[in-house]
Each structure stands twice: as structure tokens, then as C-alpha cells.
Amino acid sequence: MPIDKVSGAIRVYAGTGTDPDADIKARALTVLDDKDVAIVVVPSMNDLAFLPVLTKLHVGAGSKTLRSFTIAVQASDARIC
Q1: pLDDT (average), residues 50-73
Q2: Which of 7, 39, 74, 76 has the fewest Cβ atoms surrounding its Cβ within 10 A?
């Protein structure tokens, strides 16, 4: 999702993205300077165990959702919206 930082606030300015999660917003506020434009990529996947019953007995869960994110600055001092 494309975002920018204007007056200390993170805004999604295009596409169908919703407001970023709190951890993404917090990181973006520290990474971006005012009037920076960036792209946020949030990959996630649901990891299913090969033997779910056996895994659930030993680990306590049969599946796990893995999620990460990255912020790539595209432009500085280039307010978009």
C-alpha cells in the first residue's frame, strides 16, 4: 500500500489498502521524514503442519500465521496528497 507522512501522520493515499496496523504505523513514523512517500508490503501466510494432530500434541497448535512487513521509501520531500 502506498503511504506518505504529512504533519506527523501516516496516510494511505491510493489503492484499496486500509489503515496500516499499529506496528506498521509506528515503524513508518520512525523511518519516514515529513513529506516522504513509501510503499508498504505486508506478506502473510498460513503455515499448516504436515501432521496436524501430532504437531498439536507436541507444540499446541496445528497451524500458525506468519506475517511480516517492509517499508520502502520511494521519494523524499514529495508530498502526494
Answers
A1: 74
A2: 7
Q: Distance (Å, rounded) from C-alpha 29 to C-alpha 5?
A: 7
- pLDDT tens digits for 6-57? 888 898 877 766 788 899 999 999 999 998 999 999 898 887 766 666 666 6
Query: How far is the C-alpha of 33 from the C-alpha of 30, rounded, in Å?
Result: 8
What is the residue type of 59? V
- How far, in Å, CA of 17 to CA of 1, rounded? 6
Domain boundaries, the chain: 2-75
CB 65 within 8 A of CB 22: no
How far is residue 74 from each of residues 2, 4, 24, 63, 67, measured CA to CA in Å?
Answer: 9, 10, 17, 36, 23
